[in-house]
């Protein structure tokens, strides 16, 4: 609502439709939008924190989503994430995730 749209409503509609057509996982991401809308300054979304903390956060969220989908089953979650049970177990320990919580 706070973003100043540089075009008319038809251009906004075309931009939205294009983004929906480009997305493959039913979620529109910033990279589906035109380059002029992808700048952090223009959208007031300048990232904070380090890259490694962002990667850790993303990895933790993906593991939790997989555990929710498999009712806390680490073996099934590992298959869903295309990794080994050992690696997933190490990541679960690293992030302090309790798989039983999702049963």
Question: What report would you give on this structure?
Answer:
The chain has 103 residues and is an all-alpha fold. The protein has two domains: 9-43, no CATH class; 51-102, Homeodomain-like (Arc Repressor Mutant, subunit A, Orthogonal Bundle), CATH 1.10.10. 53% of the residues lie in helices and 0% in strands. The protein contains five helices and no strands. Helix 3 (51-69) packs across helix 4 (74-80) and helix 4 (74-80) crosses helix 5. The model has no long low-confidence stretch (mean pLDDT 86).
Report the count of strand segments: 0
Question: Class of the largest domain in CATH?
Answer: Mainly Alpha
SSE arrangement, N to C: HHHHH
- CATH homology-level superfamily of the largest domain: Homeodomain-like
Give the number of helices. Answer: 5
Find the structural class using helix and strand composition.
mainly alpha
Identify the CATH architecture of the largest domain.
Orthogonal Bundle
Strand content: under 5%
Q: Report how far apart the termini are.
A: 39 Å
Largest sheet: none
């Amino acid at each position: 609502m706070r973003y100043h749209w540089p075009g008319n409503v038809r251009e906004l509609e075309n931009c939205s439709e294009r983004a929906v057509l480009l997305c493959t996982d039913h979620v529109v991401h910033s990279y589906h939008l035109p380059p002029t809308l992808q700048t952090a300054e223009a959208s007031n979304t300048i990232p904070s924190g380090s890259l490694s903390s962002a990667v850790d956060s993303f990895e933790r969220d993906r593991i939790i989503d997989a555990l929710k989908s498999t009712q806390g089953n680490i073996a099934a979650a590992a298959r869903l994430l295309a990794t080994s049970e050992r690696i997933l177990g190490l990541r679960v320990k690293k992030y302090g995730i309790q798989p039983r919580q999702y049963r």
